[in-house]
Write a structure and sequence with these properties.
The chain is of the alpha+beta class. 59% of the residues lie in helices and 10% in strands. It has helices at residues 2-17, 20-37, 39-42, 81-87, 152-188, 190-205, 208-219, 223-232, 235-249, 253-260, 265-273, 278-302, 313-320, 330-356, and strands at 64-71, 94-104, 107-112, 122-126, 135-141. A hairpin with a 2-residue loop joins strand 2 (94-104) and strand 3. Helix 10 packs antiparallel against helix 11. The radius of gyration is 27 Å and the shape is elongated.
């Protein structure tokens, strides 16, 4: 039995490897996952939530360059290295965009940047004899800046965390609830099946987005509340598939043999039934991952998802969708393309898994 199982897994893996779009999508998903985990290491703005604002340079086009004056902060931070790498810096140097600067007699004179041909305010800064010195360096905003003057590239990189991790959390929650309820319904049947199917049908009849909004409002606005709300609305399809698969295999010989050997129902379900029906469940999980990303983006667009200043692709579209008709469509298109690429990657990988797992010997 173990040999056949291993042989089927090897055949499925070999078939998946021959699917170019499946492998390509998996590589894209892994790359985005690594970006999400190490966003603050990669992002030019490594402050928490990439939230450094410079209103003087708001809504600048991709590739915009400006001299940035970095003024050391006098505040002390007790953050550890791990915390800085994965959650961003709490205390960062103050940065000011400048159009001109020069040093005279231990004093830095600079002119703040002003757009639209205006002249910025001239200021001076005494250079301390000891400690960290202020310095000026040219900074390039590869994706431009948003309407608050924040680095759009950094916001996109940090925003990948929410879209990527909400898929994992939502799929795990939906998988746990769906497998448990679907197993009970399909294996025991009778009144248990009737009650669970009634619950499934009631949940199925409520529009997904409306149900997510209701759960989100009940739990409150926030990061983890959205994760839980999305997960609690995606278990129905998993439960229906598991129920149908178990009904199809519960009378097979290996289940009857397990019952004859005196094994308990829980052991039979976990050790013998579920491993033989997980192929379609895996495919559904890939589709649910994509659906969770879209639902979260919709919630953030409506303002009940991740709350500011937290970076979210859906919230970025909400903040800048009106710029599409103002000649700066990239502010909304860039996060929109990121959502599209990630969702498409999961859908293509789901299709590849569906083809690969249909192995017959």
């Amino acid at each position: 039995m173990a040999y056949n199982s291993n042989a089927l897994s090897a055949l499925a893996l070999q078939k998946f490897k021959t699917n170019f779009w499946g492998v390509f999508s998996l590589v894209v998903i892994i790359c985005i996952g690594l970006i999400a985990v190490f966003a603050y290491v990669i992002a030019p703005d490594n402050s928490q939530n990439a939230n450094q604002m410079h209103l003087a340079i708001h809504s600048k086009a991709p590739g915009f360059k400006v001299d940035m004056l970095s003024i050391p902060s006098n505040l002390e931070s007790d953050q550890g290295l791990f915390n800085k790498l994965f959650f961003g810096k709490k205390v960062v140097a103050n940065s000011v965009p400048v159009s001109a600067h020069h040093i005279k007699n231990d004093t830095l004179f600079y002119t703040e940047y002003a757009s639209d041909g205006l002249k910025g305010i001239q200021k001076s800064l005494a250079i301390p004899a000891t400690g960290e010195q202020p310095f000026v360096a040219k900074q390039t905003f590869l994706f431009g800046t948003d309407k608050y003057g924040r680095d759009l590239l950094s916001r996109v990189l940090v925003g990948a965390r929410i879209s990527f991790f909400i898929g994992f959390v939502a799929v795990l929650i939906s998988l746990f609830i769906g497998v448990v309820l679907g197993s009970l319904s399909g294996y025991f049947g009778g009144k248990t099946d009737a009650v669970i199917m009634w619950l499934i049908n009631v949940t199925w009849s409520i529009p997904t987005l409306l149900l997510v909004i209701a759960i989100t409002l009940a739990l409150g606005k926030g990061f983890w509340q959205v994760f839980i709300a999305v997960g609690l609305t995606m278990w129905v399809e998993v439960a229906r598939v598991v129920r149908g698969q178990i009904k199809g295999v519960k009378n097979m010989q290996y289940v009857t043999a397990a019952k004859a050997l005196g094994y308990g129902d829980v052991r039979i379900i976990i050790r013998h039934v579920l491993p033989n029906i997980m192929a379609p469940v895996i495919v559904i999980c890939a589709a649910n991952f994509a659906a969770a990303i879209l639902i979260e983006s919709g919630l953030s667009f409506l303002g009940i998802g991740a709350q500011p200043p937290m970076a979210s692709w859906g919230a970025m579209i909400k903040d800048h969708y009106n710029y599409i008709i103002l000649g700066k469509p990239y502010l909304a298109l860039i996060p929109g393309l990121c959502i599209m690429v990630l969702v498409m990657a999961f859908m293509l990988m789901g299709n590849a898994l569906r083809d690969a797992l249909e192995v017959k010997v």
